[in-house]
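Quick one: structure for this chain?
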Amino acid sequence: MLGAAASALQRGVDGIHLFNHCMVISEPWKRELLGDLYRTVADLPTLARHPRRHAVTYPQVYAAGLASRAILPIPLTAPSIGVDFGRMEENITLRIPLGPAPRHGAVCLQLGFDDQTPPLTPEMFTVRVNGVVCAPATARPAPYDGDNRGNPQTYSHGTPHPAVRQALLYTVPLSAVQDDVNVVEFVPPQLPGALIWAEMLVAPGYTD
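Got it. Here's what it folds into:
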């Protein structure tokens, strides 16, 4: 929610509406959390100070004339040259709207793969964000270093989608990050399997 709201506000929307956001508010701390969430997503400077996740996704509702195609999954080995005109031969390119670029803290790129993908290591990929090579990361930056769903003060955690069987992590230099769209590029090894998850974890005020 925070990542989507930050991206939308950065692009100039008038406001954020959390449709059908039915959080149970029977307990006081849940009511406080919901109110805090509403105040946070309404203000871009406040959002920019919070940890947030920006995932590659697709709209369930879209304006007339806009493409509805989902970007993922992307096979690691292209079926043949010319099948996917959005892909430059074997190169995989993703565009992730990040909202305001953080000036402090840490940014991590997380790539997730399906159960048909053989074991991978980060060193098997040369990953670039906006043309800058990103080094493999040993762990997600705090506060994404664990599953924090039980903490009422934490909106998100770093665990990828349940279908992801393995994930690769890369540290994105802050100097490479820009407002709004950030371009992720890499040439995968020619293996079976597919990229099914990709996101940038933004942790303002935190370090690796």
